[in-house]
Design brief:
single chain, 330 residues, alpha/beta, Quinone Oxidoreductase, Chain A, domain 1, Rossmann fold, 2 domains, 7-stranded mixed β-sheet, 15 strands, globular
Amino acid sequence: MRVALAERYGPPEVAAVGTRPRPEPGRGELRIRVLAASVGASDGAWRSGRPWFARLAFGLRRPRHPVMGSDLAGLVDAVGPGTTRFAVGDRVFGATGASGGAHAEFVVVGENGAIERLPEGVSWSDAAALCDGAMTALPFLRDGGHVRPGMRVLVNGAAGSVGGAAVQLARHLGAEVTGVCSTANVDHVRALGAQHVVDRTQVDAMRTGERYDVVFDAAGKSTYRRARRALVEGGVYLTTVPSWAIMVQQLTSRLGRTRAVIMFTGLRPDEVKRPDLDELAALATTGVVRPAIDRVLPIERIADAYRIVDTGHKRGSVIVTPSTEPGEES
């Protein structure tokens, strides 16, 4: 089978298409024909080994798992002995976590992993994009920011995969949402549902005098120190990007007027992720959440996908298509 892999750390060019034997599912496992998989910021860190602490998770000298990719959607292709949750032909989506392997035509996962059935009406690309953005944004807003009706939420990086999902989910949770983005994305962020949009090239959203209950730094481009001035008493700064500073601030800010929170949503137990997958699938089916997709590329263009991700200016998710549905092969 074809896979996209990186056997050493480096620029996008180190990612290339190779071949591996098709895996066979064992007891309690299923094999998924991967029809869409996201290429996100975490994959970029996996491939590049940057920032340095990414290597603690992915391998000190080279990627521990050279076939990257976690967020996927596809068809169950085979099941191992004792598998009861899924059957061949089921539409599924979810995440493989730190073991990766989604940038391949086929991947084997445990039936009790972070995998759920995908309703009809949600496309393969949209499903992979949900895992890429909304699966991060939902726990940040719900569990980290405790967003509820009437709150004011500022989303920094509102045009990205996580930020775009955060705009829609914060609205769904009843918040008044302000999105921060570049000039080119103002209309896009407004179309996602943001009641207010700040063009970061013209205005510093942290210095407008407005105050927010939650500042969600989905792009990881600001800091708690800067965001504090824009938070109300008891307000929360959320960031997706870990650093030594935010680790310390998360501890020290607990006794202060505002709080800093960093969450590692990808490390949550699979049994915690599964209900979120079901909830997001339902929201996508009803149109409450509409995943934004920057580009859909064939697996052969994996390096191009990483180049787009590395710019830090993608509009929504970048998706690759490792395989095709049965009967569509050329």
